[in-house]
Amino acid sequence: MPKEQEDILITIVIASVFLVLIGFFLLLIVFVFLRRQRKFQLERDEMKNKFEQTILKSQLEIQEQTFSHISREIHDNIGQVLSLVRLNLSTFTNIEEHEKLEHTDELLGKAIKDLRDLSHSLQTNRIQDIGIVESIRQLLNNLQKSGRYKTDLSVAENFTGIDKNTDLIMFRMVQEIINNIMKHAKADQISVKIEGNENEVQLIIKDNGIGFDMEKFKTAGPGIGLQNIFNRAKMIHATVDIKSEPGNGTAIILQAKSK
Asked: Cβ–Cβ contacts within 10 Å for residue 160, how many?
């Protein structure tokens, strides 16, 4: 092989190796850059999630403090005033007004009991003490006593709850759902089914109300009540599944696991 051709061949080989090394080096730089970018994105998402969790936790703590304050006000002030009114009524002796007094006494007694039940339903410590099952049972019993709703509670055998914080938030979600039913569903039947064990729980809340179009719901987005439910669900990494059809009522399924 002539000397010139050999030099050209060597030059081509060296240039090729050099280009391959440059290409490899560029690929390595791109790989490192993408890896760092992905790590940065993950860290940013984690910080965002932590920030949102902190905000939600603060909001829920404020709500629970507000509930506790309202509960104390109902019990210590309004309840005592009504009890004094009822006591004063018992001192009237006008026989002609006896029937009216008895009826007024009954109404006051019902008002005092309803306020006491409301006070208990707002007390964070009481809910945590008696557990989610008993709290939901009392909530449904109070609804049924109103005469406007027929309620039903089904509980998995031996289920008592997961942990106090999760149970409290799940109960608040049930309260919000039932409040929405009372406001919008035009239902007269409400059922709650509780399934699970100490590690996970599923709550199914159904009503026989007017229901709604899920497609329109997805387009319009949740209202304030449902948004509160979704926000609470984020706190305990729970899922919320809504099933509804116009004229066929609504079912909301809540699922959560122990932390």
From this structure: 14
Q: How many other β-carbons are positioned within 10 Å of the β-carbon of residue 38? A: 10
The model's pTM is 0.62
For the CA atoms of 212, 214, 215, 218, the dihedral, rounded to the nearest 10 degrees, stands at 110
Contact 174, 138 (CB under 8 A): no
Average pLDDT, whole number, for the chain? Answer: 79
CB 136 within 8 A of CB 152: no
* Burial classification of residue 132, based on how many CB atoms lie within 10 Å of its CB (0-12 exposed, 13-18 middle, 19 or more buried): buried
Alpha carbons within 13 A on the beta-carbon side of 175: 17
Helix spans in the chain (H) = 3-73, 79-89, 98-122, 124-145, 164-180, 214-220, 224-235
pLDDT digits (tens, 9 = 90+) for 6-58: 667 777 777 777 788 888 888 888 888 888 888 888 877 777 777 666 666 66
Give dist(CA 226, CA 254) in Å, integer: 12
Phi first, then psi, for residue 207 (nearest 5°) are -140, 165
**What is the bridge-based pairing of β-strands 239-244 and 150-155?**
unpaired
Residues in contact with 175: Cβ distance below 8 Å, sequence separation at least 6, in sequence order:
121, 139
**Measured between alpha carbons, how far is 104 from 146 in angstroms, rounded to an integer?**
18
Q: How far is residue 98's CA from residue 172's CA, in Å, rounded to a whole number? A: 43
